[in-house]
Amino acid sequence: MSRSKQRCFYCGHELLAAHLQRPRSKTRDHVYPKARGGGRGTVKACRLCNQAKGDLTMAEFRVKAVEGAMFYGEGGEEWET
Ligand SMILES: [Zn+2]
Description:
Helices cover 22% and strands 12% of the residues. The protein is built from 2 helices and 2 strands, in the order E-E-H-H. The chain has helices spanning 47-53, 58-68; strands at 26-30, 42-46. It binds zinc ion. Zinc ion binds next to strand 2 and helix 1.
């Protein structure tokens, strides 16, 4: 088994073990939130992104992230596409 590092689907940050309970610990995020009709897909994401995303869909979250520069502070660096 390879031990390649896992990265957050949204921010690309390296994921830490889930049991560490850190902002960058691994979680599973529902691509389509249950509150919005649910969906089958989940992605690996850090806790920070998972919490920030909440009930938004992926597309909505990306817009919010770009407009609010939520992770990168003032100015807001470009969101990698
Ligand atoms: Zn993340």
